[in-house]
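Dear all,

This email documents one entry for the complex benchmark we are building for the journal club exercise. For each entry we list the sequence lines for every component of the assembly. Then comes the predicted three-dimensional structure of the complex as a token string, followed by one or two observations. Please use this as the template for your own entries, and keep the labels exactly as they appear.
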Amino acid sequence: MLQTRIIPTLLLKNRGFYKGIKFKNHKYVGDPINTIKIFNEKEVDELVIFDIIASKENKEIDFDYLKEVVSEAFMPIGYGGGVKSVNDAKRLFAIGIEKVILNTSAILNPDLVKELVDIFGSQSVVFSLDVKKTFFGGKKVFIKSGTKNTKLNPLDVALLMEQLGVGEIILNDIDKDGTFSGYNLEMIREISSKLSIPLIASGGASKIEDFKLAIKAGAHACAAGSMFVYHMPHRAVVISYPKYEEIKKLLGE
Amino acid sequence: MITIIDYGMGNLGSVVNMIKKVGGKSIISSSKNEIKNAKKILLPGVGAFDNAVKNLKDLGLWDLIKEKVLVEKVPIMGICLGMQLLTKGSEEGELEGFGFVDAYTKKFRFKNNDLKIPHMGWNIVNLQKNSKLFEGMENQENRFYFVHSYAVECKDKNDILTTTHYGYDFVSSFEKKNIIGCQFHPEKSHKFGMALFKNFVEKY
């Protein structure tokens, strides 16, 4: 049987790895290549790398550096941040990235999603659904690394992306990001129950039991950032990843 | 030296990186002259079956690979679509495969439509016979990363090297003399992939 994927999320900025809280106050946590080497040793299932300034500052993807990072990673890698064209995706796949992750460009240019799916297949196109609470009107979808409110409803966007053909959706709850308060189970339940493609839970994980709760709520895989780079309560930087046997036992696989 | 065939189907960087990591040497090539001298061939591949066959034929590599494998008996390892190309054909396309192994590639079909296609993620690979490829890995659970919608069916059960369960047991790798096919991606399967590639580098 397929095993539930537990996915560390790493935020890239100026060739360093960072971690923030609620998509803000990013602090340096380490050298990307060293971090990737540690994750290799810990046998992680899959990695997600987000460049947190490429989209916000409308920068070109740092292909040269990504190539260096990816050459040290012996697991599937998803990359998001500033992917704006078929050519961007082509170059990312050429350097060994498995999945491109779209957010801003998918909302602004839904045709791109379709095109990517047609050329590279659903399994290599992921949508990152970044959701944040607003003062009026509840949870809305945000783009540009959580800085711009689209005023769109999360479920509507999730369904649109599924229809456009993406292979999976990462549900990023910005209000939960880095808070160690557990996943937003209600939102996972609400959105996953309407989707037929896999949903990856993201935002808030603090302990491995949170994975079990997210899976029970309907997530197919779990992503986490802070939990794998910080040791609580003092947020000391310690790269960790649960042992395979531990996850297997926890999830009853 | 492993010759990795570049025929425009999928990325080869990860394969090169992992072979290097386990101490092997490789070159990427689409040149007839280079491939003529290959001592060991790796045929990766992601994409559609017919495109792959066409590309290999357009590059003039189809008959050359046949000769290398059938006459010179050079070890060949096909990965993912590369494995499927070693079979007689696929439901995905109209064109014939190499047919090095008495096998055919079929789309996943499930009785109750409860399993997603593609089969994507980590799954367990169960050894069905002894092989140098899995030397040192016999007494452990071996997990590999998969992404595919089609799977191989072997006519001759003796060719089956490993099976994997997804709805039913399918052939996740085969080995017949100098011919190996892996449905999974060793290059994306960290320590398991490294162990397997190390064996391919050192023992074939």
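Observations: The longest helix of chain A spans residues 110-120. Chain A touches chain B through 28 residues (CB under 8 Å).
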